[in-house]
Structures are given as C-alpha cells and as structure tokens.
Amino acid sequence: MNAAAAKEPRSPRRDLSAFAWLSIATAIATIALKTGAWALTGSVGLLSDAAESVVNLVAAVVALIALKVAARPADQTHHFGHSKAEYFSAAVEGVMIFVAAIFILVSSAIRFVHPVPLEQIGIGIAISVVASVINGLVAGVLVRAGKRHRSATLTADGKHLLTDVWTSVGVILGVSLVALTGWERLDPIVAFAVGVNIIRTGWKLVAESFAGLMDVSWSKQDNARLAQVVRVHLSDEVQVHALRTREAGHARYVEMHVLVPGEWTVKRGHDVVEDIEQAVLANFEGCSVTIHLEPLEDPRAYDDYDQEVPIPMD
Predict the structure, then answer these.
(1) 150 in Cβ contact with 83 (< 8 Å)
(2) Which of 162, 126, 137, 163 is nearest to 37 (CA)?
C-alpha cells in the first residue's frame, strides 16, 4: 500500500512591494541629502557615502521587481511558484555592495595621494546625520518585515541599509576628526576602512543567496523543533524516516516517509498522515508538507533511506 499526500501553503503570498517602494523613497531622499553634504564639504568620505545610496536605489528597484515576481502563484510552467526570485534580488544587492565598495576604495586612495581641505564641515555632518537616521529607521522596518514574512529580499535590503548607516557613522567620525585635528588624509583613511567593511556584508549576502538557490535546509533550530513535533506521533506501529526540509525564498517545504503496518486500511494510514500534517502546519504556518506512506515490514520501504541525509529523529 503506497499513498502520497501533499499540502500546499494555506494562504497566497502577500504582496510585499510596499516595502520596496519605501526603500526606493528612502534611497532617493538620502541621495539628495548626502550629495548636498558632499557638495558643501568636498569630503571624499561623504562622496562615497552618497555613492552607496545610489547603489541602494538600484538595489531597491531590483528588490521591487523580485518581490512582484515572487508573489506570483504557481502556474503551468512553475508548479512550485516563483519564490526563488527573491534570491536573485539578494545576490544582485550583494554584487552592488561590492561595486560601491570598489568605488569607495578607489576614491579614498586618490584623495589620500591628493588631499583636499574640507569646507563647511558642520553643515555637512548635520545633513549626513539626518540621512543616517532615516536609513536606520527604514532598515529596522525592512529587517523586521523580512523575518516576519521570511523574505530574503527584504532582509537583504534592510541589511544593506544598515551597512549604509555604519558607513555614514564612519564617514561622520572621519570628517569630525579632520575638523578637530586638521589632518586631511584622515578623511580618505576612514573612507577606505568603511569600504573594506562593507565588502564583508556584500560577500555574506551573495553567499546566503547561493545557499538558497541550492535548496538549503531549514535552520538547525527549526529542524530540531520539526523532529520534536513529528516524534510525538511515533509508536511501535508508526515510524518515520527520510525527514527532509528545504527553503525557497519565503516558501518552506517538508518531506518524510511514514511507515505503518501493511495490513492497515488506507483510511487508517491516511488518518495518521493527516494528524502529522496538521501538527506540522500548526507549528510551521504556510509550509508545504509532502508525506509518502509505506508498509512498515516491506524491505523496499528502506531502499532509499540510506542514500539520503535526513533530519535525525533521535
């Protein structure tokens, strides 16, 4: 007796594009503010900060497109939906961070060789602080929304803005120290250090995106909790193996084999499968569950078990 049961997510993917529009508006506002600060002071640090905001704008537009695509339901050519589109956005954002970092490093090196005195530092710093506060507030909104909706795009966008905030903090510190010490080369030195730091953030975003495209499993904590949920339903007559998970953007999937005595009726076996499915869905809302029902005493039920890397049930 073999049967397969699958549950698709109970509710459609929410359109999260409003968050992308918020990010776009924020990028435009901070570009204007930081460009003004650079024009007033002539600081290469503030110029680099403005350049990263331009990258933020491009990344936010890409995020908007990715969120629109990811929200599309499954169709004839994409039976599992379009959720992986979010990983492409996160990867593009990571690459854009690299581009900004290279611009910052080159600009700071040129300014170190050819230092230029800064002007109207107080006003420039004040404008940059306002831009940083705006970025920080919006970054918090995006990161929280990304975690709540399991959106790789929003999480990446929020982390990018947080990187921009730290960039601004470093630039403001450097410009302030130039004003206090009169050492003009301190401005490009701080800008260079900031550029090196944001490379690390870009690399992390790209690595996370590729991990998602490779069907990464759930976190260790969620896998352990899933195993605990399933374990409650085990007995001498009900066993589970080949328990596996994967993530695809906001979508999450669970697969397992449930083994019951071969003499059971289809209805009795199906009732067990339904109980396990409902328990999983109650603890992990919106995931897709696929369960393969097999006879406990049939050796063929174990043929594929050794070739997989299942979640430990111990």
Answers:
(1) no
(2) 126
Query: Given pLDDT bands bounded at 50, 70 and 90, which one contains residue 271?
Result: very high
pLDDT at 6 over 70: no
Residues 174-186 have pLDDT tens digits of 788 888 888 878 7
Q: What angle do CA 91, 96, 97 make, to 5 degrees?
A: 100
Asked if residues 73 and 174 have their Cβ atoms less than 8 Å apart, the reply is: no
> Contact at 8 Å (CB) between 175 and 188?
no
Across 189-305, the runs of DSSP E, i.e. the strands, are 239-248, 251-260, 288-295
What the block records as the tokens of 193 is 């250090």
Evaluate if pTM is beyond 0.70.
no
- Max CA separation in the chain (angstroms): 87
For residues 278 and 296, give the distance between their C-alpha atoms in angstroms, rounded to a whole number. Answer: 22
The token pair at 126 is 């004040």
The torsion region of residue 45 among left (phi > 0), alpha (psi -120 to 50) and beta comes to: alpha
- What is the per-residue pLDDT for 272? 95
* Cα three-residue angle 98-84-16, rounded to 5 degrees: 85
Query: Contact 194/104 with Cβ under 8 angstroms?
Result: yes
Determine contact, residues 187/44, Cβ cutoff 8 Å. yes
Q: Which two tokens stand for residue 206?
A: 């790209």
In three-state secondary structure terms, 293 is: strand
Please name every residue paired with 292 in a beta bridge, in sequence order, or none if there are none: 4, 257
Contact criterion met (CB below 8 Å) for 295 and 277: no
The answer to whether residue 1 scores a pLDDT higher than 60 is: no
Query: What percentage of residues in the chain have a pLDDT greater than 90?
Result: 26
154, amino acid identity: L
CA distances (Å), origin 314, targets 224, 227, 231, 235, 299: 10, 8, 9, 13, 22
Each residue's pLDDT tens digit, 155-210: 878 887 887 787 788 778 878 888 888 887 877 887 787 778 778 777 776 777 77
